[in-house]
Amino acid sequence: MKVEFNEELIKKYDRPGPRYTSYPPATEFNESTGADEYVKKLVESNSRHTPLSLYFHIPFCEQRCLYCGCNVIISHRKGIEVPYLERVYKELKLVSQYIDKERKVSQLHWGGGTPNYLDTAQIEEFFQEIRKNFDFEKDAEISIEIDPRFATKEQIKTIKKVGFNRVSIGVQDLDPKVQQTVNRVHPLPVVKRVVDNLREEEFHSINIDLIYGLPYQTVESFKKTIEQVIELNPDRLAIYSFAYVPWIKPHQKLMPQEAFPSAEEKLSILNMVIDLLQEAGYVYIGMDHFAKPDDELAIAQREGKLWRNFQGYTTRKGVELLGFGATSIGMLYDGYFQNYKTLREYNVSVDAGKIPVFRGYVLNEDDIIRREVIMDIMCNLGLDYDRVEQEFGIKFEDYFERELEELKELESDGLIKVSGRQIKILPVGRLLIRNVAMVFDAHLRKKKELRFSRTV
Ligand code: SF4
After folding, report:
1. Is 147 in the pocket of ligand 1 (CB under 6 A)?
2. Which of 34, 146, 241, 368 is the most buried (most CB within 10 A)?
3. Which residue ranges does the chain devote to CATH 1.10.10.920?
4. Which long-range contacts (CB under 8 A, 24 or more apart) does 448-451 make?
């Protein structure tokens, strides 16, 4: 199902809302849920025999991109990562002692920061340490984010050798003026070399990340970037809207504010991106993601098996995610747990032999029901009342009476269609999918003040 761009409705429904990489979102995490609760939930999780997903955060970067909104440590001085890796190895042991050895890893991701900040020997050693603590399924999805400026042929050979089978390349924009302004310069030939190296190593799944809303971007300039990226033939694309949050990330003020595209221009850029990618044969998965029709994400969506986690969309519904490294978040069936964000606090905790979780959230039954509903809307573009009733033993129309009433306005605006005992997202509703999901969000309802990014 294609997405339809309706500027009038986008403006009508433009309001802050969660991105639903989890439900409830991380804004609900609290510090009374810590490492002891995590251990309890880890032990309980063994009785579910679910496969595991592992996330490792590598927070180091050689240079600061001025748009960056992540928690990173900038250092040209190599060596800073050595004690960090040692602590992550220690954390691996601290956590894995509670995990049943029968449970296998079906998914792993290295994110950052810049995971290819690590040299080839460190990549090999790191992976060996992971394998010492966990066994992998044969067809595990093993992915890594790389920065094309620093990706060497040797690194690419090494990531293939240790077992990675998916790569995500941060490209953001290919226009020289935009690249200079955001302090991230990698001309097209640099990116192309990395893509060629990956193909030589037979990586079959390549994702490219882009950002719209950066200084000096126009519809025309970004169109050229999209056309050049289509030529590179990635399997997936993630196209994020830039979030200007200088009160949290003061370095963003170093970009010339007068050069940012206006809200109107940003919408025109988004419209162009959607048209161009759909014409090129990419399927709009949702939020910021596009994939080729034969990509696993697109197939899972057609089959109603897509799910979301803190890395975005995933085909592995039902796995339980363990996060390692500073800031990382774990997602168990009924609990979310986040590690300390600063390196100092993370170090102190691990050095004391304590799991470095500092906050989290334990889901109640209502959260679990609403998560299922919200994820079905976000990922599988609809809702089947019978399925929810069978899974949770509720009467859908009674449980969600208020929500079904509120959906009537969205239905009359053409965002959704309610027929029989099903809700379907319509092409106009695809870009406003968060607004549909937000109707079922009980935590949002309670909030007097909304503190999220805008829905488009
Ligand atoms: S490489 Fe990524 S994480 Fe590092 S500064 Fe740039 S945007 Fe931030």
Report:
1. yes
2. 146
3. 1-24+364-456
4. 450/15, 450/16, 450/17, 451/16, 451/27
Q: Are strands 289-291 and 236-241 parallel, antiparallel or unpaired?
A: antiparallel
**Ligand 1 pocket member 112 (CB < 6 A):** yes
- Amino acid present at 307: W
| Alpha helices, H only, 78-235 | 81-96, 120-133, 153-162, 176-181, 188-200, 219-232
AA letter at 327: T
Q: pLDDT-derived band of residue 454, with 50, 70 and 90 as boundaries?
A: low
Mean pLDDT for the stretch of residues 262-291:
92
Q: 287 near 433, Cβ under 8 Å? A: yes
pLDDT of residue 448 exceeding 60: no
DSSP 282-341: -EEEETTEEE-TTSHHHHHHHTT--EEETTEEES-TT-EEEEESTT-EEEETTEEEEE-S
The whole-number average pLDDT for the span 174-180 is 98
CA–CA separation, 220 vs 192, rounded Å?
21
**Ligand 1 pocket mutation, candidates 72, 245, 341, criterion most atoms within 8 A of CB:** 72
The 3-state DSSP class for residue 150 equals coil
pLDDT in tens, 147-160: 999 999 999 999 99
CA–CA gap between residue 124 and residue 177 (Å, rounded) = 37
Reported as a pLDDT band with limits 50, 70 and 90, residue 452 is low
Residue ranges of the chain that CATH labels 3.80.30.20: 29-324
Residue 100: both structure tokens together? 């049943």
Q: In whole angstroms, give the CA distance from residue 188 to residue 251.
A: 26
Instruction: State residue 88 phi and psi, 5-degree precision.
Output: -65, -40
To the question of domain 1-24+364-456 being in CATH 1.10.10.410, the answer is: no
DSSP code of residue 381: S
DSSP 8-state assignment for residue 116: G
Pick the CATH number of 29-324 from 1.10.443.10, 3.40.50.720, 3.30.70.330, 3.80.30.20: 3.80.30.20
